[in-house]
């Protein structure tokens, strides 16, 4: 004897499966400011400065904050970026630019890491 129940449609199953996930994500997001542009919330200059100070504090005093920044930079730059080109003229120009003492604060491996850390902390 065949069961007369009709199987649920894929859309119904998908809707039921994602409903609980959406509810959990909404609970998780409570208290956070939505920066996707879908809300009218605007961060004031005072709030931005307060958040910047907190970010700087967490990057130096909080082991997890410090570790997150270090990992991001480590995986992004490793021991520094390198470049190569087959065009000899371009290579000469790039070497002059890359090796210039004036650019070492940004282009050296240490400079790249420092710039990454600053961007991750200060935005």
From TrEMBL:
The lineage of its organism: unclassified sequences, metagenomes, ecological metagenomes. This is Uncharacterized protein.
């Amino acid at each position: 004897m065949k069961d007369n129940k009709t199987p649920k449609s894929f859309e119904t199953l998908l809707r039921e499966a994602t409903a609980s996930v959406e509810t959990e994500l909404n609970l998780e997001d409570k208290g956070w400011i939505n920066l996707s542009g879908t809300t009218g919330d605007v961060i004031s200059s005072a709030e931005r400065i307060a958040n910047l100070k907190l970010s700087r504090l967490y990057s130096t005093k909080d082991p997890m904050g410090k570790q997150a920044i270090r990992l991001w930079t480590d995986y992004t730059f490793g021991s520094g970026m390198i470049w190569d080109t087959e065009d000899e003229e371009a290579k000469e120009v790039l070497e002059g630019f890359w090796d210039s003492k004036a650019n070492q604060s940004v282009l050296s491996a240490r400079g790249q890491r420092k710039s990454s850390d600053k961007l991750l902390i200060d935005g």
